[in-house]
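Worked problem 6 (solution included).
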Amino acid sequence: MEFEQFLPKTFPKNLLDKDWKERKCYCVKGRREFLCLVHNMLVKNDDVWLVTLPKCGTTWMQELLWLVLNNFDFDAAKNEHLEVRTPFLEFDYIINEDLKTALRPVEMLTSPRLIKSHLPLPLLPAQLWSKLPKLIYVYRDPKDALISQYYFGRSMGFNMDKTLEQFLTEKIESREAECDFDHVTEFYFLRSQAWLYYTSFERMKMNLRQIVEDICQFLDRPISDEQMHQMLKHLSFEEMKANTKTNHIWEIEQVRAKHGLPYEDHSFVRKGKVGGFKEELSSEFISRVDAWINKNVSKYNVTLNDLLLLDD
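Solution. The predicted structure is:
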């Protein structure tokens, strides 16, 4: 996949005091017009946005949020694909490359809309910075997230010519991956804002009940003891892995059809572990990736544990 640098029309200067001239943004080659479309899109005051880097607990939080916003309708959740109920903003254009229909899945949603995106703060709709709808951000240890990306890619026919270590080496040597640390730190430094809820996959694993309670309070939605019991069961790793509506089958089938590549079958909800990278990588390679992470986070005067909220 080829990337190119992209300069958005404006930056969220009202949110963060930083030197935006130094902020690098990259996009997949050929998506400039789409990003301009996103920049100008209408944002509603009652929207709820879920923003993450890929494979950081996005689907887990997405299902949680949809249920909270839809009166804990578990039957409806089990009968329709998650991606249909709450669209991935970038997906329609990735598949169809048609600017006329690119935003239709989001525009067809009834309010309050739950919208997922992997775009960084400067590439999200500009109205987000003025209207400030509710936004949830989830981060994850990059070692686990990148490994999960590798296997998800192979499910669609990508990365088939690379070992895991080759894939990771390409990632940590790329300029685009360095921007992932801008992606997370910009939201991390906004975490005290009333419109933003910032958490991590690791915190969700530690105490999912608390996260559900926090989200209900954040979105001003009550939850009963019975609903909480159902939520914790529905959102358990075993249930999520077995649920065909939360494993992105709808999306994966479209990507496979578009590219027609040989692929492997890997469940989208694969292991769901904290520290699963220890089972996949040598200690020497882990040290190499950790050095890359520490080098990048130190530029922002934070640690990985800070970003994962593990020292709170």
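Discussion: Residues 285 and 291 are 10 Å apart (CA to CA).
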